[in-house]
Structure formats: C-alpha cells, structure tokens
Amino acid sequence: MQPTILGMVILPLALFCIGSPVRLLQLALIVGVFEAGAALDIGGFGLPTAMVPGFLFLGYVTAQYALGMRYPGEAVLLRTALPLLFFLAYALVTARLLPETFAGQMMIWPQRPDPLAPATVPLAPTSGNTTQSLYLAMNIVFAVLGGLFLTRRAIPWRGLLAAYLASGYLVVFLCFWNLASRLGGLWFPTELLYSNPGWAIVDQWFGPVPRIQGPFSEPAGLAVFLSGLAFCCLRLCMRGHTVMRPMLLLPLTMASMLLSTSTTGIAMLVVGLPLVLLTAGGDRVAMARTRRMLGTMTVGIVIVVLPLAVAVPAIVDAASLVVDVTVEKGDSASFEERGAMDQTAIDAMIGTWGLGIGWGSTRSSSLIPGILGNSGLVGLLLLLWFGYKLMRLISMANRTAPPHHPARPALDGFAAALCGQFGAALISAPTITSLCFYLQLALVLGAASRMATDAASARPQPVPTRPVPWRPAA
Q: Transmembrane stretches, by residue range (predicted)?
C-alpha cells in the first residue's frame, strides 16, 4: 500500500478534519472530482480520493450510534430509504447465489474484457461480484448514514453547497488548463490527476480538435459531472440563491461541457437545460433575471463567434468536424459494440426470468440495461419505488417548510444536481459508483427530512381537553 502524490495531500487534510464530520463531507465533495486519481495504490487497486474522508465520516457516525446518539429525522428518512436498503440486500444476496446458479448458461460481458479482443464470455462467479458489491454497499450505507447525520440541527447547509460549487470552479479551471496544455503545450499535472492504476488514460482527438476530460478518466465522465453542476447552477439562479455566484459558474460549465465534445454533455445542454427552465418553477424576479442572463449570454456568443469564424475559418472546420462525428456516432463500430453490451445484459435478465445474474456479473454501456442484467426486474422496480418515495419527500418538504428554511438552498441545488447526473448516466454510464453522487443523495435525503420534520413540529397540536366529572343532579 503506497500513497500517491494526491494521497499525500488528501490524507493529512482528512486527518485534520477527523473531529468535524461536516468538514469531512466538504472535503469529500471537493476531492471527489479527482475521479481519475487515487489516494492509495493498494497492489494495483487505486483507492478513490473521496473514500478517504468518506471512511472517516462513516467511522464518526458509527461511533456516535454505538454511544447511543440518535437523530431527529430518522423515522422520515428511513421510511424513504427503505426501498434502497431492500435493493442493497437483494443485490448482495444475488451476487453470491445467481452467478453459481446460472453459471455457463448464458454469455456476458466481463467487467475487465480483454483489451486486444473484447468479447463475451460464459457466465461464472468472478471477483467483480465481490468488488462491485462492496462498492454498492459502501455507497448506499454512506448515503443513508450521511442523510441521518444531516437531519441534526445546526448543519451549515450553505457551506456544504458552497463546497460543491467550489469543486465545480476547480473542474472548470482544470478543463481550460487541459485545453491550453493540449493546444499550446502548457505543462499539465498529468501524473497528479491520473494516478489511479486501474485507469488507462489516453488523449482523445476529433481530428485536430482535442477532447477535454479535465480531472476525469474520459470526456463522458466529465460530462456527467458537468451535467449535474449545470442543472444545480440553473436551479439556484431560478430560485434566487446567490451562493458562490451560480450565474457566473453556469456559462463556464456550459463552455467546459462543449470543450469535452461529449455527446452526452451536448445532449444534456440541448435538451436537459431547456426542460429545467421550462418545467421547473422558481422565484418570479429570479426567473426573469435568469432568462435575461441566458439571453445576454446567447447574444454575446453570437457577437464573439461570428467575427472569429470569419477571421479564422479553421474554427468553422473544427466545429463542423465535431458536429459530423457526433451525428455519425450512431453508425460507428463503437456504438454497435455498446449496443451489443446492452443487449447482452437484457438477454441475461430475460434468460433468468427477471431475476438478473448477480450484481457485478456483466458490464453494460448504459445504466438501465446494467441494472436489469445484474439485478433484474426486481432491482429496477425497487429503485423506481425509491425514486417515487424520494420525490414525494422532496415535494412535501418544499410544500410544508418555511420559504426561508436554511436547508432550502441545499435541497434545491443538490436535487437538481442529482437529476442532471442521473440523466447523463442514463445515456452513457454503465453504473454510478462515484461516492460524490451518493453524498449528494445523502444531502438531499437529510435536507428534505430535516425540513419535513421541522414543518411537522411547527404545526399547532390539538390541546387535550380534560373530561368534566359527572355529578348527580340536585
């Protein structure tokens, strides 16, 4: 076990914050963006950066529970999270039983395919069942325990939201630095950012156009993070929250997403952001200000881009190349391979009568086929049930809590960020393993449960009346 350069920075910071669980959560939000890096190299396995403060936080909350600590929003939160806990139990049990039960009866895509000749292999129990189950257990337990902790009083909600937005500014800065390095030869801290031995990082190009990935392993991973960040910034602007200047961060995020040239990111910009703007409500004055900002940004882009395109025709050629490659992706060999991976996962679900073949058994290209293949219809229905209960909790919290509740900015921002990342993952992610995603889920669960609990306690309670004693008539 050997710490990386990134780990030698993160480990002391995490130990310094060990007595402050909120600081550990803020640190996890910031260092979690280094997804292509590792804090520790454990025999070729890279420990994700966010897991260092994440493990310390779990230890703190577990110790509190062992000492008898209880949190005020336990009942509300656990009722909401019950389907997610059922999903975890089902995934852990089936990961042990189903690969042996259906071994050799169907073909699957392995978690680590042969890099020279990737192909399907017969189903058999592998280490992927164990490692993927451990990741899932860690993430879901972290989301539930983190949410329980966050139902306590005196949580600095704006500070937690500011940490997430600060991580967004950091990613945007690294994206532009990455662009300057790829085009101008400027030094870029590659050894620091891409230190996870489990990732093979390559520089991707569309002809003369570099594909920017920032601190992530690939442009699609960057697009998933930026989708959540863009949704969060837009929602904060629409609600009139001014934490960390979301009106400044939103156009920077959109520019970084375009630099990634990721089809997922472009789809979320073209389809997702207008849907948020058109369907989500907000403060009337803030909504008008947001529309003016987006209109001004559009006019500014036209004013800058048109003269630049006339002066430098190569820019038009590069943009045309990116558009052509994006449009033609549906006919590419890689698209067909990803489609075959998804179809293999769906066939595995059908071949097991909807049970799935065990968590971590097969790899897919997108999220829903991966859930169906590994946990079957049972797992998908449990996750849909959880999503329904979470939306009900958020709706109840927004409807009943006071307008100026301190947790409202965090609920607005992190709920939007979850929607953005989940929407991007539906397009391009085989699974969601990022601890930061589950930390944001914990923040949404904690904020909504706290708001619902406060609203319930503020309602006037009926005053019990004492019965009048009976007396015989005179």
A: 43-63, 75-98, 133-150, 162-180, 249-277, 297-323, 367-388
Residue 335 pLDDT exceeds 70: no
Give the whole-number percent of the chain exceeding pLDDT 90.
52
C-alpha–C-alpha distance, residues 12 and 31, integer Å? 13
The Cα–Cα gap between 89 and 92 comes to: 5
Average pLDDT on 450-454 reads 92
| Amino acid identity at 4 | T
Q: What angle do CA 469, 472, 474 make, to 5 degrees?
A: 130
Contact between 266 and 258 under an 8 Å Cβ cutoff? The reply is yes
Tell me the two tokens of residue 260: 């990634």
C-alpha span between 97 and 101 (Å, rounded): 6
Query: DSSP secondary structure string, 442-461?
Result: HHHHHHHHHHHHHHHHHSPP
Q: Which long-range contacts (CB under 8 A, 24 or more apart) does 90-93 make?
A: 90/375, 90/378, 90/379, 90/382, 91/133, 91/136, 91/359, 91/374, 91/375, 91/379, 92/133, 92/136, 92/137, 92/359
- How many of the other CB atoms lie within 10 Å of CB of 472? 4
| Measured distance CA(446)–CA(209) in Å, rounded | 43
Strands 107-108 and 45-47: unpaired
When the pLDDT of each residue in the chain is averaged and rounded to a whole number, the result is 86
CB neighbour list of residue 212: distance below 8 Å, 6 or more residues apart: 175, 178, 179, 182, 219, 222, 256, 259, 260, 261
8 A C-beta contact, residue 374 and residue 356? yes
Q: How far apart are CA 137 and CA 91, in angstroms?
A: 9
Cβ-based neighbour number of residue 29 at 10 Å: 25
Q: What b/e string do you get for 316-347 counting C-beta neighbours within 10 Å, with b at 16 or more?
A: eebeeebeebeeeeeeeeeeeebeebbebbbb
Q: What percent helix, strand, coil does the chain show, rounded to 5?
A: 70, 5, 30
- Which pTM was predicted? 0.90
pLDDT confidence band for 273 (50 / 70 / 90): confident
Q: Which amino acid is at 221?
A: G
- pLDDT tens for 53-74 read 999 999 999 998 888 888 888 9
The residues pairing with 121 across neighbouring beta strands, listed in sequence order, are 108
pLDDT of residue 331: 53
